[in-house]
Amino acid sequence: MGTKTFTGEFRYTIDSKGRVNIPAKFRKALPDTSEDTFVITRGLDENLVAYSLDKWRQKEDELLKLSSIKPEHRAFKRQATRFATPLKFDSQGRVAIPPYLLKHADIEKDVVIIGMIDEIEIWDPAVLVRYEETEFRLDAEDIEAIDNYTRSS
Amino acid sequence: MGTKTFTGEFRYTIDSKGRVNIPAKFRKALPDTSEDTFVITRGLDENLVAYSLDKWRQKEDELLKLSSIKPEHRAFKRQATRFATPLKFDSQGRVAIPPYLLKHADIEKDVVIIGMIDEIEIWDPAVLVRYEETEFRLDAEDIEAIDNYTRSS
DNA sequence: CTAATTTATGGGTAATAGTGGGTAATTATC
DNA sequence: GATAATTACCCACTATTACCCATAAATTAG
Question: Which residue among A5, A121, B61, B96 is least enclosed by CB atoms within 10 Å?
Answer without folding.
Answer: B61
